Amino acid sequence: MKLDRFYPIFDSADWLERLVPLGIKLVQLRMKDASADHLRAHIRRAKSVCADHGCTLVINDHWRLAIDAGCDYIHLGQEDLEDADIAAIQAAGMRLGISTHDKAELARALELRPYYIALGPIYPTILKKMKWHEQGIEKLTTWRTLIGDTPLIAIGGMRINRAAGAFDAGADVVAAVTDITLKDSPEDRVRAWLAATR
Length: 198
Known about the structure:
Radius of gyration: 16 Å
Low-confidence stretches: none
Largest sheet: 8 strands, parallel, barrel
Distance between the termini: 16 Å
Mean pLDDT: 95
Strand order of the largest sheet: 1-2-3-4-5-6-7-8
Number of helices: 10
Order of helices and strands: EHEHEHEHHEHEHEHEHH
Structural class: alpha/beta
């Protein structure tokens, strides 16, 4: 299955229920510091809205809950890989996306035969404090040559006017977070992203 070129990431099912119906076909639910019950409820709601609208749902980090909920896709950061039971994830038939920042992390990720590789932050990001400085779009071209046909996702500081450069550099997909959620009209921003990436 080919991944959609636009990959928004949201921190609650509220966002998915609000924006997926606009035409989003690939989305990540990324919730940190929430109770298991709270997470289960949001995963259930996210699954429901994505099923209704033909959208691929990726769960960030919470692989046990994702397996229990019957989800198909999981995204793990490098820290998440430390604690994840990769064998259990694979046995459940889940497709795995992995964040990378340098060549050592990329080599580790590729050993796990991921469904996609994410590289970031491409540009400075306000989403979270990171030890990694901006990677720059040139690194996307390097990653493209190293990962073969594995889909490559550009994340970090991505905005609509930067998407074309990321695609030209080798990215298959562009992920966006604050460029949607911090706008006065997230709906209008999603529509603009969809227009720019299709």
